[in-house]
């Protein structure tokens, strides 16, 4: 996945979770904050989507919005469902929150190039040794939402560093 004309094209990231109301909109908000703070807003396009249609058109889960707001995040993305045809064409990186998300999204890929776009957030968790995924906090309590946010902040920070470290010949394959 090598970017050509990187001075003119944005790096596009799509965050995926099951319903697009907890983890992926939080990742969207966190990465947007990190990109903005780094002065890279004009270089990135960030979005999120869910695998299933259950929450399309809805705001993120109230608990995620509340926990995110305590960290200064605006977690207000309107949920949408992943569209394999459009999203594989439109995004450079499709970042999934867990192994189930990874299996589901990679099965929708029709080419090896599309499969290579799908990466796991867990691969960028450097401060949470042993974490294999970002667990879904939906059926949990406040501590589960805080853990999800901690993991996503860790992953987004290191993903952004990885992308910035490869700007000269942007390829994460």
CATH architecture: 3-Layer(aba) Sandwich
User: What is the number of helices?
Assistant: 6
Number of strands: 4
Query: Helix and strand succession?
Result: EHEHHEHHEH
**Total number of distinct structural domains:** 1
Molecular shape: globular
Helix amount: 40-55%
CATH homology group: Response regulator
| Oligomeric nature of the chains | single chain
What is the name of the CATH topology? Answer: Rossmann fold
End-to-end C-alpha gap: 7 Å
Please render the helix and strand layout as text.
Layout: E1 11-17, H1 23-37, E2 44-50, H2 62-70, H3 84-90, E3 93-96, H4 99-108, H5 112-117, E4 118-120, H6 142-165
Parallel strand pairs: 1-2, 1-3, 3-4
GO molecular function: protein tyrosine phosphatase activity
Active site: 17, 23, 136
Enzyme class: hydrolase
Summary tags:
173 residues; 41% helix; four-stranded parallel beta sheet; Rossmann fold; globular; disordered C terminus; 6 helices; disordered N terminus; alpha/beta
Structure description:
The active site is at 17 (nucleophile), 23, 136 (proton donor). This is protein-tyrosine-phosphatase. It is an enzyme of class 3 (hydrolase). With 173 residues, the protein is an alpha/beta fold. It has one domain: Rossmann fold (3-Layer(aba) Sandwich), CATH 3.40.50. 41% of the residues lie in helices and 12% in strands. It contains six helices and four strands, in the order E-H-E-H-H-E-H-H-E-H. The chain has a four-stranded parallel beta sheet with strand order 2-1-3-4, with helices on both faces. It is globular. Residues 1-7 and 167-173 have low confidence and may be disordered.
């Amino acid at each position: 996945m090598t970017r050509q004309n990187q001075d003119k094209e944005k790096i596009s990231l799509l965050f995926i979770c099951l319903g697009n109301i907890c983890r992926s909109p939080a990742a969207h908000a966190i990465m947007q904050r990190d990109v903005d703070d780094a002065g890279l807003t004009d270089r990135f396009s960030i979005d999120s989507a869910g695998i299933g249609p259950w929450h399309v058109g809805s705001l993120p889960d109230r608990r995620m919005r509340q926990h995110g707001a305590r960290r200064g995040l605006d977690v207000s993305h309107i949920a949408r469902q992943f569209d394999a045809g459009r999203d594989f064409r439109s995004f450079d990186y499709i970042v999934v929150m867990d192994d189930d998300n990874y299996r589901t999204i990679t099965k929708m890929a029709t080419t090896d190039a599309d499969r290579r776009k799908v990466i796991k957030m867990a691969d960028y968790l450097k401060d949470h040794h042993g974490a294999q995924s970002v667990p879904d906090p939906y059926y949990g309590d406040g501590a589960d939402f805080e853990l999800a946010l901690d993991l996503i902040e860790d992953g987004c920070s290191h993903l952004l560093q990885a992308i910035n470290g490869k700007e000269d010949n942007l390829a994460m394959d």
